[in-house]
Here is the input.
Amino acid sequence: MRIFLLCLSLISLALSASTAIHVATPQSRLEASTSYYLDLLRLLLEKTAADYGPAHLVFEPVPASGSLWKLMLNNSRIDVHWLTPTTEIEQHLRLVPGSILYGGLGLRGLIIKNSQLQEFQQVKTVADLRRFTACQGERWPDVQVLHYAGLKVHTVQNFDSMLEMLHKGRCDYFPRSVIEGDAELRQQPPHYQDFSFFTSVLLYYPMPVHFYVNPQDQVLAARLEQGLKTMHDSGELLSFMQHHPVTRHVFGAARYSQSIIFKLHNPVLPALHQQHNPDFWLELLQVKNASYQ
Here is the structure.
């Protein structure tokens, strides 16, 4: 018992000497990409510990609906989160330079019901896709991307409702990045096993992901920027992607080489971010059948 109490005391002492970094509690265990961002964040804190001291993550509960970036401004409930840039976010939060997925979030296959497979196999143009309705998160920037392309969208408040709406026929497809789609389907409950990740047709639009912090938190911003730059310059960031359980399956995959790609415009992405290399993933996956819509 004394040994147990001593261990608890040592752990408590170690944590008290460590900086607490508050992050949002994942809203769904089914959202595969969350573990990638959290693991990368832990690694960045570890790699910068020599200069900034040890740090650990503390998970804060957040409401299912509402903007996370606004929570980051209100009483600093959240210290850092991964977000896709919008003009509003850029005006209120501090961006940590360095895309953390090389734009991979914008290359999207379609989660569909197996019963509709033949219908989707007939899709050859965006006009064909307009016959169907997409499911998207209520506050996701993707909604405006799809609307801008003339596509129909049904929105829901939380991630777990997405496949339920698909199952009930309220929508016909759920666009997910090539990084997320397969991994998320593998985690679904048994009654959702009639879904497939359809990649013969892909949507592709600029969708970088960055870490953002409260504008007053210059120390955390500098710390994360230092870690990202070190990992990027050394090639370790790309290696991290190539080996992480969430992203490693994408590399070397030939399944996309014959896919039809619809390149869409992202109207909510600030102009500065539109200039980044847009074809990194198309080149990586050897995709040739891309057309701008």
Remarks:
- The domain at 2-100+209-248 is CATH 3.40.190.10 (D-Maltodextrin-Binding Protein; domain 2).
- The chain has a mean pLDDT of 83.
- The CA atoms of residues 67 and 139 lie 7 Å apart.
- The first helix runs from residue 2 to 16.
